[in-house]
Amino acid sequence: MVDGTGNPWFRGDIGIKDGRIVKISKISPDAEAKQVIDARGMVVSPGFIDIHSHSDLPLLVDGLAQGKVRQGVTTEVIGNCGFTLAPLMSKMAKEDLKNELEEFGLELNWETMDEYLNLLQKQGVSLNVVPLIGHGIIRKSVMNYDKRKASNEEIKKMRQLVRECMEAGAFGITTGLIYPPSCYADLDELVDLAKVVAHYGGFYATHMRNESAELYQAVEESIDIGRRVGLPVQISHHKVCQPDHWGEVDRTLKLMHRVRNDEGLDVTCDVYPYIATATGLSAVIPEEYHEGGKEKLLAHLKDPATRKILLSILETQQGPRGWHNLFISSVKTEKNRTAEGKDVQTLAKERGISPADVVIDLLIEEELAVGMIRFAMCEDDVVRVLTDDLAMVGSDGGALAIDGPLAKGKPHPRNFGTFPRVLGKYVREEGVLTLEKAVQKMTSMPAARLGLMQKGILREGLDADITIFDPATVKDMADFKNPLQYPVGIFHVIVNGTIVVQNGEHTGKKPGKVLRKS
């Protein structure tokens, strides 16, 4: 048994009743039980908590959360990188989401955070859900895609929306400062909204403004927000995405440690165990062209004069990073289905055009609905962050599946393999983490960040969220060529005392709860 605290493993039995752990000791073989799981030779640990997920929409599509519970995840934190599905207080915010929902045959029948969370709980989920507030949707609800400083009245409206979300049970606010419209916010705006979150005891999580040449400055800005407001800071998927700056995470981690030690500011980070990023292809288009929303961006791309300018920008800014490192992970139409899984350089050769032309053509033809994967980090940096005492594990992925509506394209393998990969590759094979430390980074560390005192540790009286795996065989099977594969070695997953995964197969149960911060 590995209890999640980082302490050495020990042998014992666990008794569960009414969703709680009622006993941890040697239990008599004569004791009565409705069901017994023989876990001899396996590790029994707290259920994994994915501190950084993007399951906001996938959980509405399919509450079974197959791709996550089969990894041993029992609690999912949604609303990261400034993206969430509520609140929706402008026509543009609603229209943008309606287009996404149509792909899955879903209707938009909520506006507020409270209504969204109620719907999620009513439909049922197989794991627990922790909601965060996306700054991007807050700004879009008040200012659409306007690239300018918010007025005092607009700040007031955004603060009210944040307040309503916190009162609905959100645990904090997140920013995606490379994505419009979140990237249009200045420091004053972020501080003003963070003050509301601090009042309710929440925290600030951020996909920072820069993860390459200005990584250090971006971490400084994130820390400054926490410093000015007095609230904890979570650096999302900490990494550096440009070869010229690999190794810079050593400086930023030292900065985080120094701030904790000298100032007493609670700053931590999360990391996923891969050297490739994933996001929408439209992210390669400079932020100024996103002003006004999706229709304006498409108009820019279709305009011959603007296209010429953008081709030059893409070749200058993206070309040096290697077009062979940028892969198309998903498209919307059958016309471009063969592009999925191919790098842009290969597509350029196949189509007889430049790589930059491929990018713009795909964005136009797919109406911006193109996913990309980019190989941008180095293994040394991944290990450096993963093994740091301030880092916890987060997938940066969604609760996808290997079949059905959530099995589309060639998604990043982190959606299916993050947690087993840490246990198999970095614990068993490479030995850069002890088993106890790895489990701690997946359980009690994120539970402490979230303030979930009933989760993340195996202890009598706490929630029975439990993952049982074989340390000798646990392994991620998903890779970049064939990502739609569940891991192996995760045998049983228990959520709130109910078995959700048994002998490696989903039971179809949905005992998860939408958790709300009191």
Automatic annotation (TrEMBL):
Q: Which residues form the signal peptide?
A: none
Q: Which UniProt keywords apply?
A: Hydrolase
One GO MF annotation is:
hydrolase activity, acting on carbon-nitrogen (but not peptide) bonds, in cyclic amides
**Ranges for the Amidohydrolase domain?**
35-501
Kindly list the GO CC terms recorded for this protein. Answer: cytosol
Q: Which Pfam families match?
A: Amidohydro_3 (PF07969)
Q: Which domain of life does this protein belong to?
A: Bacteria
Q: What is this protein called?
A: Amidohydrolase
Question: What species was this sequence derived from?
Answer: Anoxybacter fermentans
